[in-house]
Amino acid sequence: MHTIFYKYQGCGNDFILIDNRENNFSNTSVENIKKLCDRRFGIGADGLMLLQNKNGFDFEMHYYNADGNIGSMCGNGGRCIVSFAKYLGIIENETTFLAVDGSHYAKISADGNWVELKMIAVETIEEDGDALVLNTGSPHYVLQVDNLNTMDVFSEGKSIRYNSTYKNEGINVNFITLENEILNVRTYERGVEDETFACGTGATAAALAMAKIRQQTGKINTPIKVLGGDLKVTFQYDGTKFTDIFLCGPAQMVFKAEL
User: Fold this and answer.
1) DSSP H or E stretch at residue 47
2) Mind listing the pLDDT tens digit for each residue in 66-94?
3) What CATH number is given to the structural domain containing 219?
4) How many whole angstroms separate alpha carbon 201 and alpha carbon 248?
5) Which helix or strand (DSSP H or E) is residue 5 part of?
6) Residue among 213, 136, 214, 215 nearest 171 (CA)
7) Alpha-carbon distance 228 to 203, whole Å?
8) Which of 11, 37, 74, 80 is catalytic?
9) Could you confirm whether 199 is annotated as catalytic?
10) Looking at the structure, do residues 69 and 179 belong to the same domain, yes or no?
11) Is the pLDDT of residue 1 over 90?
């Protein structure tokens, strides 16, 4: 069977998207998803998403990591699938869809290239040495460093992701530096098992962690620089709970092809 697929990217975080409202794509085995995401023997992507029908929602997002396994929430993937839904004519300027971590609301620009995605509220932030650990739809470890531009994110991130605390469930590892009120973030992603050009839930976690570190409260707007471009995270923080969290940034179709 021939399958039409679309390649999308959000700040270099790239995904294979398939319109599966007719349930025509059924081979979601670990081996097949991993092969499709392989950058040498397949299409190449950080993950694969299926857009499917869901009663009570505009659509449902099914996300698979590049290692072939079902993934937790992907923020940049969420923004890309919203852009995809607009392209397909399912939505216009806003949407409510279902993801693995629950319902998400999003707003999208008229051209479909800018998406503001509402993330889940966050109440719990734990400490692990100098790092902060929190869940923004996916689990994240956030550590402030001085040498972000030169550090070996792959090696340092992998060592944390596979240490005795996190090796069983895995964790995404974010290294951050604040420069001129811009939060610089680099992320080692579980499931991809490498540094990615951007991580949406990671950028969100970094922004929340930095607000806690700086003891900021109220309405907060955090510009973020990742390897693949610029994101923005806005939220409310009362000193205890983070609410009205929006991950904002570009989402663009790269190409359409047939598998």
Assistant:
1) strand 47-52
2) 999 999 999 999 999 999 999 999 999 99
3) 3.10.310.10
4) 11
5) strand 4-10
6) 136
7) 12
8) 74
9) yes
10) no
11) no
